[in-house]
């Protein structure tokens, strides 16, 4: 899925955006509906999803909240730990 401008973001950011896209699709929420829910342009979401535009952490948290998710910070156990979903309902 790394077909975007991957040089603009690091792997952690890329993984976060990919996980958000997966959750949005699984929730059957369109970019347009999500944009309406938080009061931003659909094009802003589309550009963020394609890594053409960086959004603020506050906006990202609003996007998650509009899908009934929240962002949590968890301590890594070790560097070999498999990635885990840090979005929780």
Essential attributes:
4 helices, globular, 4% strand, mainly alpha, 89 residues, 434 Repressor (Amino-terminal Domain), single chain
Q: What's the layout of helices and strands?
A:
Blueprint: H1 11-26, H2 31-38, H3 42-49, H4 57-66, E1 70-71, E2 87-88
Antiparallel strand pairs: 1-2
Summarize the structure.
The protein is mainly α and 89 residues long. The protein has helices spanning 11-26, 31-38, 42-49, 57-66, and strands spanning 70-71, 87-88.
What does this structure look like?
It is built from four helices and two strands; from the N terminus they run H-H-H-H-E-E. It has helices at residues 11-26, 31-38, 42-49, 57-66, and strands at residues 70-71, 87-88. It has a two-stranded antiparallel ribbon. It has a single domain, classed as 434 Repressor (Amino-terminal Domain). The mean pLDDT is 84. The longest helix is centred in the N-terminal third of the chain and has 16 residues, at 11-26. The two termini are 24 Å apart. The chain is mainly alpha-helical.
């Amino acid at each position: 899925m790394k077909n975007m401008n991957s040089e603009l973001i690091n792997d952690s950011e890329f993984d976060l955006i990919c996980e958000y896209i997966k959750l949005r699709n699984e929730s059957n929420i369109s970019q347009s509906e999500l944009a309406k829910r938080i009061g931003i342009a659909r094009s802003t979401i589309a550009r963020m999803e394609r890594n053409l535009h960086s959004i603020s952490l506050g906006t990202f948290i609003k996007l998650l909240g509009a899908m009934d998710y929240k962002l949590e910070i968890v301590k890594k156990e070790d560097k070999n730990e498999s990635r885990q979903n840090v979005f929780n309902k």
